[in-house]
Amino acid sequence: MGFRIILTLLLSCYSILGFADDVKFESLTMSESLSFSESHPLGYKPSLDPMTNCDSWEWWCDIKFGVSRAVESGVNGLMINGYAYHLSAGAHWPTGYVNQDQLNEITPGVGYTRTFYNSQYNTEYILYAMVFADSWYKPEAHIGYAYQKYFDMTDSGKLKWGIGYTPFVFIKPSMTNEAPIPIPALGIMSSLKYDKFSLMVTYFNVLFFNARVDF
């Protein structure tokens, strides 16, 4: 009984501090409480339904769920950038039409990711930050959030294909007269995932190809 009271007080403090907004916690039996949950330092089991206690737009509840789960229960990862395919020189917005041969397509860079995979719904939520060489051989930085829905490609479920979206902010001095101005954007993301390794492609005005490994 004393253990349950202490656990309840800890969860109440956690909620009051604002870390558990719009998240419903399942009741625990004594055996579950004693064993704790491996996915959270406080030991409770958060609901895996993004719409639990949702009192706003569903897409906004889903984003809040994804961000909170990635921060609290996600795994760290390494993003490797390597290639960008320009669909056409004229589509290289907003710099306008340029000679295709002028654009850099080898875009080395690295990034940090924080990922939560919801195995109950086969959905993935990613927070990421990365820096790489842009189309003009200058540094470009992206900071964003990504959501993907996955589909099993094999009976084992280890190989999956996912598709989703990614709102992000990018800083591209080569298009802002060298000023580090943050610019919001929205891209389409797709991944081929095997266990902890993912090959990713993101479409904005260019196709960006990345690899990610989770730890």
Descriptive report:
- By secondary structure, the protein is of the alpha+beta class.
- It has 2 domains: 2-47, no CATH class; 73-214, Porin (Beta Barrel), CATH 2.40.160.20.
- The chain contains 3 helices and 8 strands, in the order H-H-H-E-E-E-E-E-E-E-E.
- The protein has helices at 2-16, 30-35, 58-73, and strands spanning 75-85, 106-118, 123-133, 139-152, 159-171, 182-194, 197-203, 207-214.
- A hairpin with a 6-residue loop joins strand 4 and strand 5 (159-171).
- The protein is globular and about 50 Å long.
Question: Which helices and strands appear, and what pairs or packs with what?
Answer:
Blueprint (H helix, E strand, L loop, with lengths): L1 H15 L13 H6 L22 H16 L1 E11 L20 E13 L4 E11 L5 E14 L6 E13 L10 E13 L2 E7 L3 E8 L1
Antiparallel strand pairs: 1-2, 1-8, 2-3, 3-4, 4-5, 5-6, 6-7, 7-8
In brief, what are we looking at here?
The protein has 2 domains: 2-47, no CATH class; 73-214, Porin (Beta Barrel), CATH 2.40.160.20.
The unreliable regions are: 1-45
Order of strands in the sheet with the most strands? 1-2-3-4-5-6-7-8
Annotated CATH architecture of the largest domain: Beta Barrel
Radius of gyration from the alpha-carbon trace, in angstroms: 20 Å
Q: What's the average pLDDT?
A: 78
CATH class of the largest domain: Mainly Beta
Percent range of helical residues: 10-25%
